[in-house]
Amino acid sequence: VTVSLTDVTESNWRECIKLNLTPEDQKYVDRNVFAIAEWKFEPDNVLKAIYSDSQLVGMLAFYIHDGQYGHFYWMYHLMIETQQQGKGYGEAAVKLALRDMRERGAKDIRTSADTGNTRAENLYRKLGFEETGVLEGDGSKLLRLATLYANLSSL
Ligand SMILES: CC(C)(COP(=O)(O)OP(=O)(O)OC[C@H]1O[C@@H](n2cnc3c(N)ncnc32)[C@H](O)[C@@H]1OP(=O)(O)O)[C@@H](O)C(=O)NCCC(=O)NCCS
Fold first, then answer.
1. Ligand 1: which residue has its CA nearest to atom 13?
2. How far apart are CA 24 and CA 110, in angstroms?
3. Alpha-carbon distance 145 to 149, whole Å?
4. Is the pLDDT of residue 147 over 70?
5. DSSP at 127
6. Residue 77's closest CA among 34, 140, 118, 43?
7. Are 50 and 8 in contact (CB under 8 A)?
8. Where does the pLDDT of residue 134 fall: very low under 50, low under 70, confident under 90, or very high at 90 and above?
9. Mean pLDDT (the chain, rounded)
10. Rounded Cα–Cα distance for residues 84 and 67 (Å)
11. Which residue from 31, 119, 141 has its CB within 8 A of the most atoms of ligand 1, so it is best to mutate?
12. Percent of the chain having pLDDT more than 70?
């Protein structure tokens, strides 16, 4: 199985917004339709559809923050549809996104996971993110991949 990140376009955006999540999982991530709308108004954000071979399985997004909080890449959206979870797609997709960010010059990559979202937290930790001890305004844990930046080269 080959996992790839593909642009969201006229031909797949409807399929993207139909990707399914349980009500429980919907608490952890914005709806894809919202992520697409946001990206339309913030075109510098990077929004990708996640494919396993030719099958659409999820979506992710990141942006570059350059402002009052410093300069870093922020992964703000990640989902794998319910029926496709647990197959390694999330991990493969995040690795591709990290590589993409590195190629764009990222030295500091951050994300957050809701307290209690163990699957996301385990996934991020597995890929080298460390807990900062900081909670975001919404109560989610801020995770950061900066000190382990050297490890990115092995992704
Ligand atoms: C979080 C999410 C993206 C993970 O994607 P996935 O494709 O199911 O995960 P993978 O199969 O690639 O698993 C990779 C790692 O994630 C962690 N993980 C995945 N499922 C897990 C589970 N049920 N329990 C504990 N850890 C789990 C593990 O560290 C796993 O590595 P391992 O298999 O070596 O233990 C997916 O569950 C999801 O979309 N959840 C709902 C939305 C969400 O929470 N998004 C993240 C917002 S921060």
1. 88
2. 24
3. 6
4. no
5. T
6. 34
7. no
8. confident
9. 90
10. 37
11. 119
12. 94
